User: Fold these one by one.
Assistant:
Number 1:
Amino acid sequence: MTLTREQGWSLLCEWTRGEALRRHGRAVELVMRAAALRHGTGAADVERFGLAGLLHDADYESWPAEHPARIVAWLRERGESELAQAISAHYTKWGVPCETLLDKALLACDELTGFVGACARVRPDGLASLESKSVIKRLKDKGFAAKVERDEIARGVELLGVELAAHIDFVISAMRPHAEELGLGAAAPRP
């Protein structure tokens, strides 16, 4: 892998002007870095997993109708075919099979990370005391964060071979130390 984290961040900032989508990319990066240690081969996977998380929606704001074609092409031009494949497969309705652990981890972490963030935003203390049981309760409420596709979360957990509550706890624990940076701390402004 030749792409650096700095190059990835620079591209994300160039293509994504909105703070919310940048924060989502950063949150998924953090969770994916933790996923590399838990599900991957360890430290050797951290940068690759992190970059997949950081860049998975990099083209969405500027070219929503073409997402993820722009970022996938950009990565392939630079010889980053593994990252391109994972990003191509991070939404099951695109019909690209999840073949590698990286593909499965990105699918399992992306939508759930966004949902955990939504759960934290409505709590007075943000991520500080959020637990999986609260997230599961909110998952059952189709009116809460209605745009989050619950079937994508279920499919990701299934493909990664983890239990839902345990995976939610994992995502929360990966995000919690970065709550302030992600706008999910106790003092974060609420919608």
Note: The radius of gyration is 15 Å.
Number 2:
Amino acid sequence: MDDRSTDGTCQLWILRHAEARPEPPSGGRDRDRPLTERGRRDAAALGARLTADSPPLGTSGLTLPEVALVSAAVRTVETAGLVCGGLGERLRTDTYVSLYSAEPETVLAYVQEVEGDPRSVLVVGHNPTVSHLAFELLAAASPGREHLGAHGLSTCSLAVVDLPIGTWEEAAEASGTLVGLFAPPY
């Protein structure tokens, strides 16, 4: 079943994980770093805004994600859980070890493989990958592109991009429009 609207666009939500501890737990690896208290607070606040505001984040044109693609690192899994917890069963979450060190092209390949034709997909990942992905998806004339290119995504920041596509297989660089850029405090 095709859940997309008839306007021929899909929305990609690109979220950088919330603030994480600078060092892994004793004996751990970088991917084992958990969120800080601030990181948990920011992610929980974003999650609360997603379920409390109508339209989401007070911005018309946003469609809540139906699928989340999440890096398997502790900080991204924790961020996704806090942000998406209130969305309940409407959101399918797929976690991938390979997204931890993925380049933007690899993340885009995962997006292109999303099944079930959801209207909106969320990616929760790491910098610099998520900032580069958001920037590279935007058409040259998209408002906000220069700002995103200069500043990237800070921790727990979200870029929402409209893509003029009928299926996720068609997702391509330099084709999107920035619908919104959101950052803490939420």
Note: The mean pLDDT is 94.
Number 3:
Amino acid sequence: MPIEIERKFLLLDDSWCYKADAGIIMHQGYLSNNSKSSIRVRISGEQANLNIKSSTPGTVRSEYEYPVPVTEAEELLADLCHESIIEKIRYHVEFSGFTWEIDVFSGANSGLVVAEIELSEIDQDFPRPAWLGREVSDKIRYYNSHLAGYPYSQWSKEEKECS
């Protein structure tokens, strides 16, 4: 069973920008999202994928991903996805041999910026850049599947501060 080991963090500042690539625009929506799994369609630039991921909170989850034609992904986003569509630009930043994915959200999640790192082992050690803030890997509210139904723009000040 394919698994994803991912750690998610907030950022302290935007100094990561100076080392980032040009970024890629992403649109994603959820065909299904329940307590057991989520089924997502995502368009990333000129590519599209269908993704099935377990809804297990934390750093390790089952994940399956399959390419789909962009035109079909556009139809799925327009016609079959429930809740809101996630809009973001994903940047990649290389740091000490690791690649960080920085998601800068727009639309209903504007103002939220999250850094993610995928690891090959659960307890793998990795260097932490100076711009890295508080870890939110176990905070479901930061999962894209949750943001689709309860966007960042609807969070209270306390929810934003007491992550």
Note: The mean pLDDT is 94.
